[in-house]
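Quick one:
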Amino acid sequence: MRTINDCTILIVDDTATNLDILVDSLGDDYDISDAIDGFSALKILEKVNPDLILLDIMMPGMDGYEVCEKLKENPATADIPVIFLTALSEIKNKTRGFEVGGVDYITKPFEVTEIKARVKTQLSLRLASQRVAMQKEQLEEEVRERTRDLVQTRDATILSLAALAETRDDDTGEHIHRTSRYVKVLAEWYSRNRDDFHPSRVEIVGKSAALHDIGKVGIPDKILNKPGKLDQDEFEKMKVHTTLGWETIRKAQKGLPPDNFLVYASEITLSHHEKWDGSGYPKGLAGAQIPLSARFMAIADVYDALISKRVYKDAFSHDEAVKIISGDRGTHFDPFLVDGFLEIQDDFEKIKTSMPNCL
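Output:
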């Protein structure tokens, strides 16, 4: 760690006698650079970054006030403390010096004890400020590392839970990845067009979509993998996957804060089969009663089901899927989100095309 004796000082004064006095007073304790005018000082500062500048006010060509203003305008030199050297004693002169960014004054004729004391004070403050800044950066890096660890833990938890659903259905794995991407692009569109969903939530709601069918692990194989259409009794049992998934995630949430990363997963899992007109399940929610995340998922889930080939049906084309979803605007789906879907439908098709095994 740097000490005060490691500090460097730039002295700027157009009088050789004054330079000699200052160099003699400070040279044994600090590394000294000097300049005889403001222009020379600015050239030196292009190569040297001192810890403190002693700056004469009354100089030809460019006075100390002007030099200090230029220093403060330059990000590379703005934080270097400046002590003005002056024979001026009027309050207005000292006030201006503080206004342009100076931190102190040394009055001519010089008194060596005063010079050393004022310089030491400013350098001590400079080093203390640098230590605080370093500690702040270290703390911020620790926070960033902790955040990265938490994000990795969150993602691993989501993937681990989603893997449960994949074990039951050969189609589920790719369906999970596609629908997550659909939800993300739809959420991105929504965040650009409404102010009630912050862009920072887009990624986590997209990842949470992977858990929407986790409840299917509790559905019997004869129903889950039936090649034909489900009868009414089978369909009623299939509908239970929403509450089973919700209960699974609720258990995983125990001990986590109320705003934990599984909140969206819980909403999506329970409510992605709700319909805008209230005819969906499991609770028959309608309109804005349905969580926004589940409304994203409803469009993504149906689109993927339509464009995917199953043992009981052929895949619909993208255009056919778009037409069907558009036709259910205001009945099955949130009208505003359908408008967004139509606007970004090319993004959906690109995702579909990039994962052709859904066909």
